[in-house]
UniProtKB/TrEMBL annotation:
The keyword Transmembrane applies. It comes from Buddleja alternifolia. Keywords: Membrane, Transmembrane, Transmembrane helix. Residues 1-33 are annotated as: Disordered. The chain crosses the membrane at residues 48-71. The lineage of its organism: Eukaryota, Viridiplantae, Streptophyta, Embryophyta, Tracheophyta. Residues 1-12 have a biased composition (Basic and acidic residues). The keyword Plastid does not apply. Residues 16-30 have a biased composition (Low complexity). This is Uncharacterized protein. Pfam families: Acid_phosphat_B.
Length: 310
């Protein structure tokens, strides 16, 4: 090759290198410019990353919604609980008032007309919700514990006085049509517990004397009833003569106590649901008061006596 040809080849090679270098530089520069442009315009995100990001936002939103709903439920619950506490407090106040009023009514021989209307509902709940049954069960347990500690002496002079009128229960209610269902339930419950106590004392060989407010002229009917409900083998049944019907029952019992003591009997205990049978401290060594409903209808005994007479 001539010198001229070599010179031309060198120039061509130089131009080719220059062109390739420029292109490479241009490409690098373009690439760098492209990266900067993408960065300035926004963040590039793949579809998978976008899905995760959106799912995260939904999860946070749902968590906030659940928190709001939870707080709403808690607030509503607190309001309901506070309302329930207030209602319970009011009911407790009414219950305590009626129970204390019932005690004073029994002590003073007051009738149902001395009670406010609220006590009628309290009375119904006292029986229907089982508290009256619990009180009867506790009292009978106390009586049984007392008598389990000793036995009557062999001379037959240790006696227990029981209120015969407490035995009138479910059967009399069906026959004599007492005032309402609550009265029926209360008398039925008392009848059951008194009968169980009577049988327990009889099995322990305690002589039992029954006392009744009913007139002597109803003796046969009263005896027939007591026997029909399983009350048998009492030592005696004391009832009021015609000239004693106007006498206060406490005074009547005081006279009977004197008679029994003159005959050599030792009254170990008196068991009754009524205060007029438990007011004389000389009547016996121990008194046991059976619980009553908050109030009793004063007409009940009168109606029972009237129908017995018929």
């Amino acid at each position: 090759m001539s010198a001229y040809g070599h010179e031309m080849e060198r120039e061509y090679s130089a131009q080719s290198l220059s062109t390739r270098g420029g292109s490479s530089l241009s490409t690098r520069g373009g690439s760098e410019m492209g990266s900067r442009y993408t960065t300035d315009a926004g963040v590039y995100m793949s579809p998978f990353a976008a899905t995760i990001f959106i799912s995260g936002l939904v999860t946070v939103g749902m968590s906030l919604l659940s928190l709001i709903l939870g707080l709403s439920v808690m607030l509503s619950s607190c309001q309901s609980r506070n309302s329930g506490v207030v209602e319970l407090y009011r009911n407790t106040q009414n219950y305590d008032y009626c129970m204390n009023l019932a005690l004073h009514a029994e002590l003073n021989g007051l009738g149902s007309d001395s009670f406010p209307a609220i006590c009628k509902d309290i009375n119904r709940r006292y029986v229907k919700e089982g508290q009256y049954r619990k009180d009867l069960n506790i009292t009978v347990g106390i009586v049984e514990d007392f008598f389990s500690s000793f036995r009557p002496r062999n001379d037959g002079r240790d006696v227990v006085l029981m209120d015969a009128d407490d035995f009138f229960g479910s059967k009399t209610l069906h026959i004599y049509q007492f005032i309402n269902r609550v009265d029926e339930d209360t008398n039925y419950l008392k009848h059951i517990f008194v009968m169980n106590l009577y049988k327990k004392l009889k099995s322990d060989r305690w002589p039992l004397i029954l006392l009744s407010r009913k007139p002597e002229k109803l003796r046969n009917t009263t005896v027939d009833y007591l026997i029909s409900v399983g009350c048998r083998d009492w030592s005696s049944l004391i009832m009021r003569m015609d000239n004693e019907m106007q006498m206060d029952f406490q005074e009547f019992l005081s006279r009977q106590r004197s008679i029994l003591q003159r005959e050599g009997f030792r009254i170990i205990a008196v068991i009754s649901s009524q205060m007029d049978a438990l007011s004389d401290p000389r009547l016996g060594d121990r008194f046991f008061k059976l619980p009553n409903p908050i109030f009793r209808y004063s007409a009940a005994d009168h109606d029972e006596n009237r129908i017995l007479e018929e």
